[in-house]
Specification:
disordered N terminus; Rossmann fold; ABC transporter transmembrane region fold; 612 residues; elongated; four-stranded antiparallel beta sheet; alpha/beta
């Protein structure tokens, strides 16, 4: 199994597929942009044709000694038509800029929404984070972003390709070998560009990782939570050299890539001289030997100049599309490859007012096969309405069990059942409705107290229920003394007057959040590790009151805090080593009892020292 748990292989779409994908979204999201693109492409084909035929017509009129009125009328009609097409082309080209930029924001919004909906397993691992960073990086470079560049290049390729066909027909009447030569030398340019692009593609993951490391160190400088440690431990003398090291690695990688493109540009310059020089020499020979007329000379001269440009544009912009295609794949890979598939015929979740049973049947799980299994044929039956405590040393698998139960990860084998139904048969959105949880990591948003509890906008929040939950969680008094009460903004990241709670108060806020959701299964995943034993005991007692008529799972390192549970499961080596009530496990005198005695030793009063 890959180190990316249950993650699909990175997707790789062809350039044509990504062009069609982008055009489809443009047509669906902004039809006016689609019209501008089409108009610009058509006008881009017509304008150059006017450009080579108008001088030919003018020369032939002069050579035929036509009267001035005919010359002015003919040239006037052509000039007026050409002016109209040029204006239409410029209007379309200029007007599409704003709408092209809106498409970039359209995809950034899709990435943001997908990041909220993304499988947790894809968020927690480093590879998933790199994928997200690569997808955002493809869109965060303004006019140099993937979608903006793709729009410009696909218009240019279409225009140049159709013009190439038209100009090939014109030059073939002079000599088909001219077309072969001009095309052949341009192919050399295409190949040199391709080598440079391939090297760029090969080093792409390296540059993303180097940029991610650099970004992380720079983030530490602006992270309020890390700020205290940075200052008290004088970490600047460590972080700055680290930042310089990562910056040097990033710059070196980008330099090597740019160097390949520089070599390609030298090859371009050499072939340009050979290509155009030979073509113009042949043309001069033809007109000087009387084999073509002056008017035809002017036409072919313009056609050779235009043909060289079109062939070069096809190669350059096709290579550009191939280069952009890497970034487009990054975007689509994240948007289309971030979640496991939902069940074809999803099961209906149990009614929320029912007591829930939970069953782990022969569950095996590993984050990475190289480090072995976290759970090995784990079995556990939790009865409806039962309170279970999961205890054990670090790495025993306590939090992993919660992640599996909530559907954040999928077992390698075995089943997890809720009221007899395997949770893989529920839609994720439905499964999440069954849980109210307080996790180790505190997640408070810079919104109001009420919104942080309801996790909904203010207009959709039941204010009376918020106050009731604060009361039960033991935080009502602290919020009531605030000038705006539950409408007080939290944190200082957005609002300078934002409310900052202590560690214990934050835990109570999260308890209130769990109360507000009122789901049938409660989970408390060791959120009180930073609290003193008395404060932790109070939190657990409140949570015990909250969990009446519900199924509850508790995780704690402090064994005394879980004595009220119906059963305690002592985990060791990925299995349930001991199961029973606190009294039963103490009577057994096994590993649980031994750990309990070791912990309780630190809370017993020490004997007074003897007087000497």
């Amino acid at each position: 199994m890959d180190d990316i748990k249950k993650e699909k292989k990175e997707l790789a779409y062809s350039s044509f597929s990504n062009v069609f994908y982008l055009l489809r979204d443009i047509y669906g999201e902004s039809k006016i942009l689609f019209l501008f693109i089409l108009t610009e492409a058509v006008c881009g084909i017509i304008v150059p044709l006017f450009g080579i035929y108008l001088p030919k017509i003018a020369v032939e009129l002069v050579m035929q000694t036509a009267d001035i009125q005919k010359i002015l009328l003919t040239l006037g009609i052509f000039t007026a038509a050409m002016t109209f097409i040029v204006v239409l082309h410029n209007v379309s080209s200029g007007s599409k800029y704003h709408h092209s930029n809106n498409m970039r924001w359209f995809y950034l919004k899709k990435l943001l929404y997908k990041s909220f909906d993304r499988d947790y397993s894809n968020i927690e691992n480093a590879n998933g984070q790199i994928r997200y960073q690569k997808a955002r990086a493809a869109l965060e470079n303004g006019d140099g972003s993937a979608t903006s560049r793709m729009i410009i290049s696909m218009v240019a390729v279409f225009t140049a390709f159709i013009s190439f066909i038209l100009y090939s027909g014109i030059l073939s009447t002079l000599n088909p070998l001219i077309v072969v030569m001009l095309t052949g030398l341009t192919v050399i340019n295409f190949i040199s560009d391709r080598f440079a692009r391939k090297y760029d593609e090969k080093r792409r993951n390296e540059t993303a990782q180097a940029d991610r490391k650099l970004s992380y160190v720079e983030h530490c400088a602006n992270d309020m939570q890390a700020g205290k440690d940075v200052r008290i431990y004088n970490m600047i003398n460590w972080l700055i050299p680290m930042r310089n090291k990562f910056l040097e690695a990033s710059v070196l990688l980008h330099y090597k890539i740019k160097n390949r493109y520089f070599v390609s540009s030298i090859i371009h310059s050499v072939t340009l001289v050979l290509r155009d020089g030979a073509a113009y020499a042949y043309l001069i020979y033809m007109v000087s030997s009387g084999r073509i007329e002056i008017g035809d000379f002017v036409l072919y001269f313009g056609a050779i100049t235009g043909f060289s440009g079109f062939v070069n544009d096809i190669a350059a912009h096709f290579n550009e599309i191939k280069s952009i295609n890497i970034q487009m794949n990054d975007i689509r890979d994240f948007l289309e490859n971030s979640n496991l598939s939902e069940p074809a015929n999803p099961a209906k979740i149990p009614a929320p007012d029912l007591l829930m049973s939970v069953s782990f049947k022969n569950v095996c799980f590993s984050y990475n096969q190289d480090v072995g299994r976290i759970l090995d044929n784990f079995n556990l039956e939790i009865q409806p309405g039962e309170k279970i405590a999961l205890v054990g040393v670090n790495g025993a698998g306590k939090t992993t069990l919660v992640k599996l139960l909530c559907g954040f990860y999928t077992p390698d084998s075995g089943e997890i059942l809720i009221n007899g139904t395997d949770i893989k048969n529920f839609r994720r959105e439905d499964l999440y409705k069954l849980f109210s949880a307080v996790f180790q990591d505190i997640m408070i948003l810079p919104f109001t107290v009420a919104e942080n509890i309801s996790m909904k906008s203010g207009s959709k929040t039941n204010k009376d229920l918020v106050w009731s939950c604060l009361e039960k969680a033991g935080l009502r008094e602290q919020i009531e003394i605030q000038e705006k009460g539950i409408n007080s903004k939290m944190l200082k990241k957005i609002d300078a007057d934002g409310l900052i709670l202590s560690g214990g108060q934050q835990q109570k806020l999260l308890l209130a959040r769990a109360l507000y959701k009122n789901a049938p299964i409660l989970i408390l995943d060791e959120p009180t590790a930073a609290l003193d034993p008395i404060a932790e005991s109070e939190v657990y007692e409140k949570f015990n009151e909250m969990s009446r008529d519900k199924t509850a799972v508790y995780i704690s390192h402090r064994l005394a805090s879980t004595r009220f549970c119906d059963r305690i499961v002592f985990l060791k080596d990925g299995a349930a080593a001991e199961i029973g009530s606190h009294y039963e496990l103490m009577q057994k005198g096994g590993e649980y009892a031994n750990m309990f005695e070791i912990q309780s030793h630190y809370y017993k009063e020490r004997e007074a020292p003897e007087n000497g």
